[in-house]
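cron nightly-structures :: item 1 of 1
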Amino acid sequence: MRPSVTRARLDLYNQGKVHVWQAAAIDLAGSPEATNPFVQASLHIVLAWLRIEVTQPRVLLELFGRPDGPLGAQLRLIGSLLRQPNEALCTKEARRWWTIAKAAYYARWLEFALAPGTHRRAGRP
């Protein structure tokens, strides 16, 4: 990550958020579920959502965990793709949804980090 967007300007609290996102992305990438098409689709749907909603790195940091933010809806969306209709929600399943959401936030963070000075929507000229 380049210092223009990352740690150099972040307080400890926001650095912690980015580290949590990074850990989730690493965890997901190293898991057997990394190749599950529904897991991949979930991650990419949330990433696309973030590309539309978030055009600045600071906004991404603010949205994560904000009570009135999109995270709850994103988790429900992930669950709708991964959960079996008759399956009871368990802690392991909920943790998996959170891991996917955090990995998507980290992917969006990396898009900002890899394109310093350009905080537009990814894929737009």
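cron nightly-structures :: done
The longest helix spans residues 91-114.
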